[in-house]
Amino acid sequence: MKNKQKVVELLKAIETGATEPIGYINPNKYIQHNLGAADGLAGFGALLSALPAGSAKVNTVRAFEDGNYVFTHTDYNFFGPKIGFDLFRFEDGKIVEHWDNLQETSGPNPSGHTMTDGPATSADADKTEANKALVQSFVDDILVNGRMEKLTGYIDGDNYIQHNPQIGDGLSGLGKALEYMASQGISMKYDTIHKVLGEGNFVLTISEGAFAGKHTSFYDLFRIENGKIVEHWDTIEEIPAKENWQNNNGKF
């Protein structure tokens, strides 16, 4: 069984209560980066047992694989409706580490797109590394360093589909959103890119920064076509103060 399939089954088990997929986790080594869950398999079990019976719904819309990593994009009802990216690391066919980023479901956005709709399967497997390099440069240039004059080198005008629930399509939609944020005194700053993972024409970046003055984790999924970014999904999650962490592994 592919690692990708193992992850999809494990996530679905949150809804169904199936116990077999728990066997995909290494019971002796499970490093947890969700700061609301205690470390190890016991922490994962405790989180599941806290869910009201029958309340969880899990629909994994996208699943991609990059080496020993699998990353997924999932529509959850898990203590309320949320959209989440999950990242799992495998060793010898078993899951040994997990990261995620969850945002309360909202939208559709000004262009009518939800946080999860759009293409779900990858293409251009031979371009994975080139696409990862392109996206890393985009995030570094535009989101970390604010070199907005380079934006049109990465995005082709209004040929850009946006799934952020607050922003419309195209560079025009992005411009309007940034203007509104500036008028409200809301700042968004990316400081560090922690991971860049990809499968074909889909690339996920995991970054750290601040949104509206709060320590924040940004997960951004991009779809690339002909050397340009043409579609974007994301989740933004505030990182709690360290005294409220349930494990000491950190968000990243």
From TrEMBL:
The residues the entry assigns to the signal sequence are none
Q: Where is this region: Disordered?
A: 101-126
Q: Which residues form the SnoaL-like domain?
A: 135-232
List all Polar residues biased stretches.
102-114
InterPro entries, from UniProt?
Cyclase_SnoaL-like, NTF2-like_dom_sf, SnoaL-like
Against Pfam families, the record matches this protein to:
SnoaL_2 (PF12680)
Q: Which residues form a coiled coil?
A: none
Q: Its GO biological process terms?
A: polyketide metabolic process
Gene3D superfamilies for this protein: 3.10.450.50
Name the chain's protein. SnoaL-like aldol condensation-catalyzing enzyme
What organism does the UniProt record list as the source? Mucilaginibacter gotjawali
Q: What is the lineage of its organism?
A: Bacteria, Pseudomonadati, Bacteroidota, Sphingobacteriia, Sphingobacteriales
